[in-house]
Amino acid sequence: MIIMNRFLFYLFLFTLSLISLPVLASAPVIQAKAAVLMDMKTGQVVWERNSRDPLPPASTTKVLTAILAYDMGNTNKLCAVSPKAASVGEASIHLKAGEKILLGDLLKGALICSGNDACVAIAENVSGSESLFVQWMNLKAKILGAGSSEFVNTNGLPAKDHYVTAYDLALISRYAMQNPQFSAVVGSRYQTIGQGTSKRYLKSTNKLLWQYPGCIGIKTGTTVSAGPCLVSAGERGEKKFLSVVLNSPDRFGDSSKLLDYGLEDFSSRTLFHRGDLIRTVPVINGMKKTVAVIISQDETVVLPKQQTKVPQTEIFIQEQLAAPVQKGQSLGHIDVLDNNRGLLSRINIVADESIPERLTLWEKLKRLCQLVI
């Protein structure tokens, strides 16, 4: 009887422990060869598969083409279509050599119905040639941190040494979506461009704009070598997530699962507020002996809703300083780590005030003389 009672007691404790454990959300099961899910506000990656592997991007290339043109060009500029641009095949908005069309309309044609001809016309009218524009594309990618990708054309047609990683494409797309003109276009189901006999009616290739509540863009891509690809973004309330899937037999289904995972199972948590005191640091030869080290800005991370454990942090800070110290001077950083000690976020920590150098009377007189002379 005692043994049975003990057994029932331990069974009760085991059952209670199961009830009290948080049930973590299941990671999405998708078919894409490479994929990444990124929080659009922080840039934090919450899920990935082979996200650093180089793969052909197909027409998702046009995200970079378009945002570079929005940054460098004038959407009201009337552009001339060259014979080269008009001759580009496959996906097309059927431009004619010698036609005049606004740069803004070319961008709509490239982004909404994936016009390859529009991309060449954009490049030629913004930079003078497609080859120079491609150089700008690669430079822009590196500036955005997307240095593991390489572009040799503006539209993503198959070419040797033209590749992206899912992570790089997410970085580029997150940046692009911060541009109001770009985000308005990729969030459109339909657009009309041109005038009179040159008027064209465009329909988006992104089916998620119809199928997924809260979809706000952004770009499809398909070639034989790349397979079906999709960059997509969704929002619910204040949450915004961006998904990239490369070479997926079910790009819209995979993207929906990833967006659901982010929007339903993650929430933002503020770990630090601007001005939070970290510690004080000794100042050598200063008018004050120490300076306060504070957080430079509010810091938010995205965590699973069920996670109650506060993320680990590691502080890297200068042990002492030599005067003078400037207010806002960077004195180190704090790394926020996930459960596997992967980097979630890096926070800059700065001096809270300026600390002038302590000078002797002789040093003061010497500096005064130098100013006079």
TrEMBL record:
Keywords assigned: Carboxypeptidase, Cell shape, Cell wall biogenesis/degradation, Hydrolase, Peptidoglycan synthesis, Protease, Signal
Residues annotated for substrate binding in this entry: 219
Signal peptide: 1-25
SMART domains in UniProt: PBP5_C
Gene Ontology biological process: cell wall organization; peptidoglycan biosynthetic process; proteolysis; regulation of cell shape
EC number: 3.4.16.4
Active site: 59 (acyl-ester intermediate), 62 (proton acceptor), 114
Top EC category: hydrolase
Pathway stated in the Swiss-Prot or TrEMBL entry: Cell wall biogenesis; peptidoglycan biosynthesis
InterPro entries: Beta-lactam/transpept-like, Peniciliin-bd_prot_C_sf, Peptidase_S11, Peptidase_S11_C, Peptidase_S11_C_sf, Peptidase_S11_N
Entry function: Removes C-terminal D-alanyl residues from sugar-peptide cell wall precursors.
PANTHER family, per the entry: D-ALANYL-D-ALANINE CARBOXYPEPTIDASE, TRAFFICKING PROTEIN PARTICLE COMPLEX SUBUNIT 12
Record's protein name: serine-type D-Ala-D-Ala carboxypeptidase
Gene source species: Formimonas warabiya
